[in-house]
What we know:
Order of helices and strands: HEHEEHEEEEHHHEEEEE
Shape: globular
Number of strands: 12
CATH architecture of the largest domain: 2-Layer Sandwich
CATH superfamily of the largest domain: Bira Bifunctional Protein, Domain 2
Strand order of the largest sheet: 1-2-3-7-6-5-4
Number of helices: 6
Strand content: 25-35%
CATH class of the largest domain: Alpha Beta
Largest sheet: 7 strands, mixed
Radius of gyration: 18 Å
Distance between the termini: 45 Å
Helix content: 25-40%
Amino acid sequence: MMGLPADVAQGIDQVTERLGRFARRIIWYAEIGSTNDVAMTLAERGEPEGTIVGADSQSAGRGRLGRSWVSPPGAGIYASIVLRPPGDVAPLVTLAAGVAVAEGIEASTGLPARVKWPNDVFIEGSTGVAGGRKLAGILAEAVSPSAVVLGFGINVMPAAYPPDIASRATSLESELGRPIDRGLVFAECVAAFAARYEDLLAQRAEGVMAAWRARAALTFGRRVEWDVGDVVQNGVVHDLDRDGALLVKAGDAVVRVISGEVRWI
Length: 265
């Protein structure tokens, strides 16, 4: 463990027995460009599976589709994990991480969290799913055919979100109205991912997908739209397939959505 803040170290101490391969090495920075970038460099150099890079602040954090991830000092959890999953496991890593982050948040704070395909964790709003606010995001990036870096960011404290996301972002402390133990949230999320990753490796993917469906229950039957090139398509969410693709009924057909952003209508 390198440079862990006191709260993170205490959180890790509480769950060490549940971390498995993810207890081997955690490297922490006060400030960094991007935890994913550092973890990807380490993976390229042969760093073993389970290595975690964390930071109090990022100056160049990013999410999916090239978007920036706001990472103010001390306001959130920013971490990336080096993984070396078998080929049949890799496509499900993002879904497993979404389930794990939601489970870790609930275990450490009592706040029920939901998931949105493929990589968002959010809190349901008073107007249902469409009124929910994003609490955490996940970014899995391939380093090589045998290595993946899994990054996750969780909004812990109220922060000055950019105008384009202020209406759809929130934080743990905003939702709970009280301070929370950041270190315990981090530790519980990693412990939950350790368990869900082991499920994938042990060919128990259906259990992971069932847990994802349960936390995305309000998504099913909902009309959504997504982009295919310059064309906007829409349909009604039906299910997931065995590879984690979203199945959407569009007219008489069932379409597999495997990438991009799905927007609720």
